[in-house]
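Convert to structure. Protein one:
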Amino acid sequence: MLIFLGFIVLALAANWGVFLDYARYVILIVILHNALALAGGYATASLARVSPYDRRAITIETGIQNSGLGLVLIFGFFHGMGGMAVIAALWGVWHAISGLVLAQFWSRRAAVR
C-alpha cells in the first residue's frame, strides 16, 4: 500500500496543474465507471447463480481494477504523461475507498441467497 501511495503522490506532484484543470471531470468519470463495474459484477454473478459469498467476491473483483499496475505502465512506458497518471492515481484512490466501504458494509450483513 505504501508503494501504491508513493506512485499516487508522484503522479499528482508531477501533474498538479493537469489535476486542478480536470479533477472534477475525472472524479465523476472514475466514480461512474466504478459504480457500473460493481453493479455489472453483481448482476453477472447473480445471473450465474453463484453463492452469495462468491457473488460478493466477484463484485469486488470486478469493481476494483488494478490501478497500481496502470501507474507502473504509465510511468514505465509513457513517461508519466500528465492526464493518464492523474486518472490512474484517482482511480486507485477511489477504488480503494469504494472497495473498503463495500466490504465493511457487507461484513455487517448476512449473505442471503
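Protein two, convert as well:
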Amino acid sequence: MAGTFELFRDGGVSFRFKLIAAGGSVVAVSGQFADKESAVEGIRVVRECAGTGLITDLCPTMSREAAMERNPLPTAAVV
C-alpha cells in the first residue's frame, strides 16, 4: 500500500501537508503555504521528485569503531 498525503490547516493560519507511510507513521511534514492551492502544488512537486531525488550525505565521516561506541548494536540473548 502506498503512503498518503494529509492536507491540513496549521493553527487555522496556513496550510501544510503530511506524508504518511503505509504503516501510519509520519514520514515528512511540509513547510507552511499561504493557500490551499499552493499546498496542493507542493504535494504534486513531492510526488514528482520523491522517486528520483538524489541523496546528499551531509553527515560527518565516522569510523566504524566510533559509530559502535556511540550507538552499539544490541547483543543477542543466549538461551
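The helical segments are 36-50, 64-70. The beta strands are 4-10, 14-20, 26-29.
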